[in-house]
Automatic annotation (TrEMBL), chain A:
Species assigned in the record: Kutzneria buriramensis
Protein name: N-acetyltransferase domain-containing protein
Lineage summary: Bacteria, Bacillati, Actinomycetota, Actinomycetes, Pseudonocardiales
Automatic annotation (TrEMBL), chain B:
Superkingdom to which the source organism belongs: Bacteria
InterPro entries for this protein: Acyl_CoA_acyltransferase (IPR016181)
SUPFAM superfamilies reported for this sequence: Acyl-CoA N-acyltransferases (Nat)
Protein name (record): RimJ/RimL family protein N-acetyltransferase
From TrEMBL, chain C:
UniProt xrefs under InterPro entries: Acyl_CoA_acyltransferase (IPR016181), GNAT_dom (IPR000182)
Transmembrane segments: none
Name listed for the protein in its UniProt record: Acetyltransferase (GNAT) family protein
Keyword Transferase: yes
Organism listed in the record: Kutzneria buriramensis
Keywords attached to this entry: Transferase
Amino acid sequence: MTEILSLQRLDTDMAIAELKSCGGAARGFLGLDPVTQNDSLLAAELKSLQAQLFSAGETVVGFAPNTDQPRQAYVASTSADPEPLRALLEFLTTYQRCTTFVAMVPDGVENCFADCGFEQVGVLPRHRWQNYDWQDVLVYVGRADSCRS
Amino acid sequence: MRLRGYRGSDADLLAGPWLPGELLGLPLADWPPLAAPTTVPPPADPGQELCIAPGLGFVRYTELDWVHRRARVEIGLHGVDGLDVLLKTVVAHGFLTLNLSRIHGWVTPLVDPPIGLLADVGFQREAVLPEATWLDGRPIDREIWGVVRND
Amino acid sequence: MPFMTVRHFTEADIPVRTELLRENKYQTNLNDFAMSAADLELADGMRRTIESGHHVKRLFTMCGSKGQVVGFSWITSIDWRSQTCELSFAVLPRYRSGFGFKAVEAAHEYLREQLHMDVIINQVLSHNTMMLSAAELDAHAQIRAEYDSYTVGQWRTACYWTVTRDDVRGRKQREQARRQEIADRVRAGVQGLS
């Protein structure tokens, strides 16, 4: 079995600081946006999503449980490197007993979901407004049995 | 038909035997007798707009995002009469009154919602998410349906 | 690094803004409530705004190219449905000569590009000619409201005008056309010399 990258759990303040340091890559992360939301608003959103964030080097990964289906989690990553995401999926499968994962990624942003075995299952048109323009959001789904390394 | 704001006397309309968060929450015939009805809370913050379709039920524009000008809609109805007119009103209220650019919501195919009516008012199926909610002891698929305002 | 950036106002900015609220020109040109308010009261107000006032008011910090705080801008009367808000700004005294226009421009850009505002309402008291001359104020003003504000012992008249998305698009197109015209003229001159 491939060695899994270690993840560092982030408390809310650290999570926000790390997200802000990721610049544009953090825009749309679990629906958050450090450009339009200040720290208090980001903290409130993270709390309402029941999100947990982790760092792996310079990458931030995180998840929010699907409250309608506890075996499913929404996941996000600030980088196109698949390893941090694989580590998160391993954690979610092992310790949260997740069987499926959903990712919603702004179109045009390089991402690692296909590399991690996710399949694109839809497009949400004009779901975001950023830099004076509408942006579609791509919806990916991964399954624990095919996404784990 | 017009949607109006929520009043304290509308509390009974906020609970019923429908799936939580459903775009078209219609009463499910075989709702388990021990299951509590699905309930939405009265409006408490500016992140949602709770409207009442008098005599029918509620229409809730939730996850309201004013930067991205969108909302997720969930509807809970105690009957199915006038559904086509209601859906037209829901879209018009979202686009013209709330000035949103996009509304979307969850549709669960297993409960056989009248998706033709959604399509009639401009909604389209945008994504299919496997195992996205829980019903009758197992995870079931859900779809995201949305409509975008054409300016 | 852009010449001017806009970031969210944080708790660390409170002392600098408190000082600015009490500066003479600020009081005359915007409002003078800070003179009779305690530090704690002012700080609590700003803290409340950044913690829970997002829906009705937002504060921003304007920074120069080295990240230094140049001033502040804030939006009030936010009408999210209509995509309108009223923009106010104040530049620290030591940066007023060089940064004023850039700060205003950056704030406008942020509101349109990121917060998706369609209409920005400007209000300038008519005696305030720090950024715009009296003639320019007259030209901009769509409404002149007498007895609008009472600052530092005097009633003030305010000039109000809106800037819409279309206004900005039109201005950018005119600027682009002007730049193109100059470039064409220079090119023609160079060709004439060779």
